[in-house]
Each structure stands twice: as structure tokens, then as C-alpha cells.
Write a structure and sequence with these properties.
By secondary structure, the chain is α/β, with parallel strands linked by helices. It is built from 14 helices and eleven strands.
């Protein structure tokens, strides 16, 4: 069995974390991933604290295993969610789209493990000095909000820069990816897109179908002019967003055009006009199965690959 320092730190069986995807990383998905031995995350997105509290309690009603909440730091409700996380004594918090420096002292005092998502070595070093327990080093292959460094060079540089476990994210969907991440020095992987296509995820079936039929060049990035680039499946919405961005319309008008598009695509299933956020790894996702099957497949495949490596090297 693959057991890493991440497993010990978070109290999980397998070194697999589920991404905290807004709208679709709900209690159903988080509880299923945690029950399967990974770390399930509630994606707070821009939701209010009361919604997050209800989701936390739903997870606890379905599993007694560790889970977490992802706090989107650019959300107007981030402070509210932070307060709820403290009150509910959530075991693990991951953060994205910003720096959690202001929240870390209280989270650490409460005994919550703080795992920031970072896209640069500089941010990882700074947060390591402030006491981060681990990091998710997320390359630009991932879905949703992305940085500008790809996974392969980012992960080993973050590993070398900090003395806590590093989780690799961006481009992982199978056991080959887990084995590769371990070879880079990571202590595990985070997956978002692969968990979209599970029976427990509430994403609309039309969105799931678009993911499982996607190819290697199915995604596009937009939003660079806003300072928050986003990766999603190519569709009429991304093409129109890119056109408006290229024409240089005002930031306010661009934000207005994008508002509500995530729910439209992910929940309502409008695959033409909604934002279908997912990573480049969509081309490796070919079926919709329960979370337990996803994790068991990945771990078994990674173990088999690692077991074959000495023989492969010797034969060469």
C-alpha cells in the first residue's frame, strides 16, 4: 500500500485529495471521497457561511473520517466561511485564489490543518514560515482558476523549497499520475476533474458527458485581463469571453458577462452558454464510476507501476 507523510498528517488511508470545486464539491462528494480513504473537500466557492455549515454537518452525518473545506479567498463570504470553519472545528482547510495569512493563526490555534493551494515557490516559502502544514502545488493544467507555471516544473521546486508535505495538482486522473507525482517528490495528488465524473458528484449529466468525451485540446483559458485566468472546456461561452476580452471591453462588463455562468454550466447543464470548468486531464477521464472505484483503481495502478520500475530499469 502507498502510505506517505500526507496520510499521517491528515489521518487518511490513501494520498489522494479531492479538489474543492465550487458548486459541485458538495457534502455528497466530500463524504464519499473520505469514506473511500481519501480526503474529501467541501468547495465553499462564493457560498455564504450558513450553506457551508449545513454541508459540514451533512458530511459528518455520513462519515466519521477526516474531511476539509476549501475557502476561496477572493469570495466576498470568505470571512464568514472562516468563522464557520472555526466554530465547526473542521479538521482540514485548503485555500485558493489568494494568501490565507490573516486566517492562519486562528486556524492553527484551533488545531485545524492548513493546506494552501499555491502556484509559485515564493508564496509557498512565505506561507511555510507562517506555519502551513502542507501545500497543494497546482500547475496551470488544472481547471478553474490557474497560475502560469505547469505542474512538472512547479511541484519539484515547491518540494525543494519547503519542509512539509507537498501535494501535486493539475493533470492527475490515474495511477500513472500518482506514481509520477511521487517521483517528483510529492506526498500525494489532488484531483478535481476526475472526481467530477463520479456517481456521487452533483454536476449535471450533460457536463459530465462533455468531460468524458473531451480530447487533449478540449480546454481553453480566459480571464487573463482580470488577473484570474480560468481554464474550462471550449464552447461558445469561452469563445465569446475571449472575443470580448480581446476587444478590450471594461473589466466591469467582462465580469458581468461571466457572472452566473458556472452554475449555468455545471448545475443546469447548459453546455453551450455555461462555464464548464475542468482541467486538461479531461482527455484521460473516460467513465463515470463511484469515488471508491476511482481511488482504488488509481492506487492499484500506481502500486503496479512502482513495483515494475526496478525490473524495467534493470532490463535497460
Amino acid at each position: 500500500m502507498i502510505h506517505t507523510p500526507l496520510c499521517d498528517l491528515l489521518g487518511i488511508e490513501h494520498p489522494v485529495i479531492q479538489g474543492g470545486m465550487a458548486w459541485i464539491a458538495t457534502a455528497e462528494l466530500a463524504a464519499a471521497v473520505s469514506e473511500a480513504g481519501g480526503l474529501g473537500l467541501i468547495g465553499s466557492g462564493s457560498a455564504p457561511g450558513d450553506w457551508v455549515r449545513d454541508q459540514i454537518r451533512q458530511v459528518r452525518a455520513h462519515t466519521n473520517k477526516p474531511f476539509g473545506v476549501n475557502i476561496l479567498l477572493i469570495s466576498p463570504n470568505a470571512d464568514d466561511v472562516f468563522r464557520v470553519v472555526l466554530e465547526e472545528r473542521v479538521p482540514v482547510v485548503t485555500t485558493g485564489a489568494g494568501t490565507p495569512s490573516a486566517y492562519m493563526p486562528a486556524l492553527k490555534e484551533a488545531g485545524t490543518k492548513v493546506v494552501p493551494v499555491v502556484s509559485s515557490v515564493m508564496l509557498a516559502r512565505r506561507l511555510a514560515r507562517q506555519g502551513a502544514d502542507a501545500f497543494v502545488a497546482e500547475g496551470m493544467e488544472s481547471g478553474g482558476h490557474i497560475g502560469d507555471v505547469s505542474t512538472m516544473p512547479l511541484v519539484p521546486q515547491v518540494v525543494d523549497a519547503v519542509d512539509v508535505p507537498v501535494v501535486a495538482a493539475g493533470g492527475f486522473a490515474d495511477g500513472r499520475g500518482l506514481a509520477a507525482a511521487l517521483a517528483l517528490g510529492a506526498a500525494g495528488i489532488q484531483m478535481g476533474t476526475r472526481f467530477i465524473c463520479t456517481s456521487e458528484c452533483i454536476a449535471h449529466p450533460a457536463f459530465k458527458h462533455k468531460v468524458v468525451t473531451a480530447g487533449d485540446r478540449a480546454t481553453a483559458t480566459t480571464g487573463y485581463s482580470l488577473g484570474h485566468a480560468v481554464r474550462a472546456l471550449r464552447n461558445p461561452m469561452t469563445r465569446e469571453f475571449a472575443r470580448l476580452e480581446l476587444e478590450g471591453i471594461s473589466m466591469d462588463d467582462l465580469v458581468e458577462f461571466g457572472t452566473g455562468k458556472m452554475r449555468l454550466g455545471l448545475i443546469e447543464g447548459d453546455v453551450e452558454n455555461g462555464s464548464l470548468m475542468c482541467g486538461q486531464v479531461a482527455g484521460l477521464v473516460t467513465d463515470i464510476v463511484p469515488c471508491r472505484q476511482v481511488i482504488e483503481r488509481i492506487v492499484a495502478e500506481a502500486e503496479a507501476i512502482i513495483g515494475r520500475l526496478p525490473k524495467m530499469v534493470k532490463e535497460r
